[in-house]
Specification:
By secondary structure, the chain is of the alpha/beta class. The chain is built from 9 helices and 6 strands, in the order βααααααβαβαβαββ. It has 2 domains: 4-21 and 91-214, Rossmann fold (3-Layer(aba) Sandwich); 23-87, no CATH class. α1 (22-40) packs across α2.
């Protein structure tokens, strides 16, 4: 699947790649609509209608990932609400072992997420993955989502990776296409980002089922 001899840097998404996307799907599709319905004294169906319309409008933009934006939009403290269900945050199988083996092989492991810093900090408190990375970056640090074609050049100014010798693993097809078009040499999709849902069609990208299938060779 991967020729590790040609890879120096591994860029990894967080939600749906290292972490189970179940937490995020549950929060945005179920828990937040419930809380919004109670706060606005409307039905759950009306709450979902209003919120999902806004989600569709902003999906793929920096606003979609910005907790400050959604706090202002809903009038609710999104970080505080996420804290109420943080016990649902979980790892995808063999994620930590993969990170350990990447570092042990002498390669760089870099977290590159669209998650807002409020969400990133909460998840690192719950599952301290930060010790396994050479760097951790949110797209909010650069003012562009990973879907934007200029994101990768801004990241490159900080990380200095070699485009052809870099692997990106991400559950977003839009992000994978953006990275590929920017010159990232190797890209892998994630077949089942949410453990409670079925497999995702990774289309033109090779799909990763479990990290154990791509452990790099030890030095």
């Amino acid at each position: 699947m991967i020729n590790w001899d040609n890879i120096d840097t591994v860029l990894l998404d967080m939600d749906g790649t290292l972490l189970d996307l179940y937490f995020d799907n549950y929060f945005w599709l179920h828990y937040l609509p419930q809380q919004y319905a109670e706060a606005k004294h409307i039905s759950l169906d009306e709450s979902k209608t209003q919120l999902f319309a806004q989600f569709s409008q902003h999906r793929g933009t920096l606003n979609w990932y910005c907790l400050d934006f959604w706090s202002a939009h809903t009038g609710l403290d999104i970080v505080a609400l996420k804290n109420q269900v943080k016990h649902l945050i979980g790892l995808r199988p063999n994620a930590i072992q993969f990170l350990e083996k990447v570092r042990q092989s002498g390669r760089k492991a870099v977290l590159v997420t669209n998650a807002h810093r409020g969400s990133l900090d909460l998840k690192m408190q719950q599952i301290p993955l930060h010790t396994h990375f050479d760097g951790m970056f949110s797209s909010h640090d650069f003012g562009l989502p990973k879907e934007h074609p200029n994101f990768w050049s801004r990241l490159h100014e900080v990380v200095h990776f070699d485009y052809p010798r870099t692997l990106l693993i991400d559950d977003s097809l839009a992000v994978l296409r953006s990275a590929r078009n920017a010159g990232i040499g190797y890209t892998l999709g994630v077949q089942q980002p949410d453990s409670q849902n079925g497999s995702m069609n990774t289309e033109e990208f090779i799909g990763l089922d479990c990290f154990s299938s791509i452990f790099p060779p030890e030095i």
